[in-house]
Write a structure and sequence with these properties.
Layout: H1 2-14, H2 22-30, E1 57-64, E2 67-76, H3 82-94
Helix pairs in contact: 1-2
Length: 96
């Protein structure tokens, strides 16, 4: 995820027209919505919500013969965690 978060931040900063300042970077990052990658199960977002957990679905992987292999496709992480449930409610009410 570190690589992907850095890529999202870099792509957003490269989208800035004009001066790159703290304000313009914050605006670009805050406007992130619908960022797609083959490393994510669903589009990445950020914004003004009080809680952000855009990566709340995941692939299940396991080691096999010295490599990690996928054993299950994109699956929602359990909403038994109150923060996951809250994040999904925010996503739904925000149309994300």
């Amino acid at each position: 995820m570190g690589f992907l978060e850095a890529k999202i931040a870099t792509d957003r900063m490269l989208s800035i027209k004009g001066q790159i300042t703290r304000a313009s970077v914050n605006q670009a990052l805050g406007a992130t919505k619908g960022y797609r990658s083959d490393l994510l199960c669903k589009p990445w977002y950020y914004g003004t919500a009080p809680l952000h957990i855009p990566n709340n679905t995941d692939w299940t992987v396991t080691p096999r013969d010295g490599h990690m292999v996928q054993v299950q496709g994109c699956t929602p992480i359990s909403a038994a965690d109150p923060d996951i449930a809250r994040a999904r409610a925010i996503e739904q009410s925000s149309g994300l």
